[in-house]
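Collaborator request, handled under Task 6.
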Amino acid sequence: MKSKILHALTLLFLILLASCQSDDQDFNYDPTNEISVVTDTTQYNVIQFEVLHIVPEIATTIKDNRSYTYEWSAYATIAPGKPIVLSTEKELNVPIGLDVKTYNLQFSITDAATGVVYLQRYGLKVSSGFYEGWLVVSNKEGRGQLSFIRKDGLVIYNPAEEVNNKTYPGPGFDAASPINDISDMQQIYYFAGDNIYLFDANSFSELSTSEKLFGIPLASTGYADVAIGSLSINSYLINNGKIHLTSISPSFEGAYTPALTGDYTSVFPMSFVNNDFNDFFGNTYFYDNVRKRFVYSGYADIKITAVPSTASSPYFDMAAVNRTMLAAAKGTAGKYHFIMKDDSTSECYLYTLTDGNPDDNQQINLSNIDQLKGFDALSDGADLAYFGIGNKLYKFDIAAGSTSEIFEFPGSSQIADVKVYKNPYVDFSINPTDPEHNQKITVAVNNGAQGEVYIFSLTGTGNIANGTFSEHYTGFGEIKSLKYRNK
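Structure tokens returned to the collaborator:
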């Protein structure tokens, strides 16, 4: 029995040996087919709905006629979910309709002969077609227009009407796009006619109206603003001198409170945040232009309170200023600057708050200063402010207490608004490398019913570079205001 088993095993061994010898003679094993991909970059940026074209250079270690299949897909970097297939072609050449956010872009190559999949990943940032630029409110033929000058120079006239396929009646007064580092709000407010409209900042799709925002129809007269409060928890909407409050979120479409009650009558349309976080619960200040004093709201308050007296200050008493606020601007290092008018003499003064405390009070010796249009200040570097009177643009050196004319527009032109370009993310140290931050000013000018926008670069001393503007845009109605949409 053992002999039979031994013979059987010997025979099996000889058969297997012959088989192996036959294989060695007739079959060559394929080495691994290695694939490499080269593209022009590893990080892609695209404007939503525009075409992204990527031409990959593909190399393989096996040079035969085998076929491959391809797939381009994307998944969000945060809460990715299921990948979205963009294309099954070798070259990616499609309009990108993804939501505005950052993605991982994945290129898959499948070897049809082996089924092996090669993956290559890239970064992809999808920005809105309205990703950054100037909001221009103007009136043309009796009706308001909210237009957009994109950072790359593209002008989009009245996009809200085109996107929403509707008209927005009545004159336009103002717009607001409050941005900060924590809230990441992405809305645009438009004050026009007898309504207040809320649009998605990335698409201009209408999100809400004053009836939804306040629970009742609420008309606007243009005396308006929207601002982020202390600690980035609250949003204040100022309309017709009254203050409304809501909690903020990136997707806010909700409602504001009725007008807050308290010790105020009618506030100037701007809020001033106390940046002194030694007192962690910094206050948000307002100025009551009827009672001529500052008032404030704490981060969790639902009423407005008169500020305590600062009569001991050598500059002014915040509880009894007794002057009318004409203009206000955020300055450097926690400062806010205000143009204040003495109604009895028509003299005007520059007042300053630094971290919520009085810090300056100086008379501005310039005729017709009470007729100024537009007022803004640098938020970094020198303490300089800019404003317009008639067709002349002025620089105000705050430290020196002096004003100088830096540009004159031709003929009967009238300056309507003046704004310094400020990237708030530089001030928050999120993007500290923006080379244009505090280096440009934008001026809206009206010639009768026709509005124009000029952008000037500044020199190191705050004057006009090369003595003239660097950009010029036309086609607007009579301009009422300029506001910047940062993201």
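The cover message to the collaborator said: "Residues 160 and 166 are 8 Å apart (CA to CA). Confidence is low (pLDDT under 50) at residues 1-30, 426-431. Please let us know whether this matches your experimental observations."
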